[in-house]
UniProtKB/TrEMBL annotation:
Residues of the full protein shown: 291 to 571 of 571
Protein name: EAL domain-containing protein
Protein source organism: Sphingomonas baiyangensis
Domain EAL: 24-280
Length: 281
């Protein structure tokens, strides 16, 4: 344990197993401060129509640079946020911030800027009845039409408590929002929910997409997801497109949309708006 001269706080540096709990606690404490103190930001990654190449949406992804200047991956801090319950204020912040940015893009464009924004909702948030109220408040606060918002859910969100979640999902749909099933194919749920829930889009997980050109099994899985979506009247977005060849192959297979480093990495809001005007002119 070292004492920071600057802040006088005690910071934990050990990585031994028995200190992991304490380390998690310090991450949690600092994350709480980051949410309250405005230290989080959102980056925006374009989602493109594979046929035309036009940007149709941006996915909002939370970014956190800690007080020591370390940029942590959401894969590291979102699980901590979920375990500690901090995902509720974090998710509320992200929803409000994403709607604020979308309204700012519209204002800068002199009207509807032409894209929607996708925001991730954690299973823990979905299990709370108030989540639709939270989303409505965020839309209202920034005068955004619900049709401009896509909510990304994971299969784990649905497995936990299907009946309760069905009710909440309908309340979200009543706001006009679109629903996307994120990381589709990686959950371990049965597929019955696809019939029952008003899901608009399946996002094919990156693990099936990247490397699929050299792997017939991955192609088979991608094809199966595409035909499932088509049969159920859902749209499809492929995650993790890093090459032109992949984009062309997916378009030829009938996938609607694509997201990945080929188009752009997640960008700060002002850069995302500039990308939009250069892409879609
Ligand atoms: P996700 O929702 O599946 O988001 C897509 C992730 O894939 C992002 O990682 C993005 O940067 C990355 N990605 C996009 N294109 C490519 C590509 O071509 N190649 C590679 N290798 N990666 C690509 P990121 O931003 O690190 O976020 C990771 C996960 O953290 C997200 O996965 C999402 O599940 C979660 N997350 C991020 N922000 C939030 C949030 O505000 N709320 C919640 N509940 N979860 C969030
Ligand atoms: Mg997502
Ligand atoms: Mg995803
Ligand atoms: Mg993913």
């Amino acid at each position: 344990v070292k004492r920071s001269k600057k802040s006088g706080r005690t910071e934990v540096y050990q990585t031994r197993a028995f200190d992991l709990a304490r380390q998690q606690f310090s991450v949690e404490t600092e994350l709480r401060r980051a949410i309250d103190g405005g230290a989080l930001t959102l980056s925006y990654q374009p989602i493109c129509d594979l046929a035309s190449g036009r940007i149709v949406a941006f996915e909002a992804l939370t970014r956190w640079t800690t007080e020591r200047g370390v940029a942590l991956s959401p894969c590291e801090f979102i699980p901590v946020a979920e375990e500690s319950g901090l995902i509720v204020p974090l998710g509320r912040w992200a929803m409000h911030e994403a709607m604020r940015e979308l309204a700012a893009w519209d204002a800068a464009s002199g009207g509807d800027c032409g894209v929607s924004v996708a925001v991730n909702l954690s299973a823990i948030q979905l299990q709370r009845d108030q989540v639709a109220t939270m989303v409505r408040d965020a839309l209202d606060a920034h005068g955004v039409n619900g049709r401009r918002l896509t909510i990304e859910l994971t299969e784990s969100a649905i497995v936990a408590d299907p009946d309760r979640v069905t009710h909440t999902i309908r309340a979200l749909k009543d706001l006009g929002t679109r629903l996307a099933m994120d990381d589709f194919g990686t959950g371990y749920s049965n597929l019955a929910y696809l019939q029952k829930l008003p899901i608009d889009t399946l996002k094919i997980d990156r693990s099936f997409v990247s490397g699929m050109l050299a792997d017939r099994d991955k192609v088979a899985i991608v094809r199966a997801i595409l035909s499932l979506a088509q049969a159920l009247g859902m749209q499809t977005t492929a995650e993790g497109i890093e090459t032109n060849e992949l984009a062309q192959t997916l378009a030829a297979l009938g996938c609607n949309y694509g997201q990945g480093f080929l188009y752009a990495r997640p960008l700060p809001g002002d850069q995302a708006l500039r990308l939009l005007s250069s892409f879609n002119q």
